[in-house]
Specification:
By secondary structure, the protein is mainly alpha-helical. It has helices spanning 2-6, 27-61, 68-77, 79-120, and strands at residues 14-15, 18-19. The chain has a two-stranded antiparallel sheet. β1 and β2 (18-19) form a beta hairpin. α2 (27-61) packs antiparallel against α3 (68-77). The chain is elongated and about 85 Å long. The relative contact order is 0.12.
């Protein structure tokens, strides 16, 4: 289909000024991006846990101070959203890997069809 788009036989899908014919998926780059995302999610865990634990600990140490309640609230209220963020980053990495695998499978299937067509001629 991209060849048909280039020749003007079939109007191309345009997304953000890029036609379907302009899209080039590099599977290894999708896998590399997936690994970066998963690595970031893993690296995010320790500093987030330390910050939340510190906020809770300091809140207890500052009992009676006006900021103690806010620090305690920070430690408890940010735990779930930050855990969700970490999971979202992991899911992004997983989705990038799945997308790369799908592109690879599609390319292999297309190559198989073309090689079968060449054998018939």
């Amino acid at each position: 289909m991209p060849d048909l788009v280039r020749r003007g036989v079939v109007p191309g899908l345009v997304l953000g000024g890029v036609t379907l014919a302009d899209v080039n998926v590099v599977v290894r780059e999708l896998h590399a991006s997936a690994q970066v995302a998963k690595g970031l999610a893993e690296e995010l865990g320790a500093p987030v846990k330390a910050a939340l634990t510190s906020a809770t600990t300091v809140s207890g140490q500052l009992a009676g101070w006006s900021v103690a309640g806010a620090l305690g609230h920070l430690g408890s209220s940010w735990s779930a959203p930050l855990a969700a963020l970490q999971q979202r980053i992991v899911a992004t990495g997983t989705n990038l890997d799945a997308n790369a695998a799908s592109h690879n499978q599609n390319e292999q299937a297309a190559a198989g069809v073309w090689s079968q067509q060449g054998a018939k001629q």
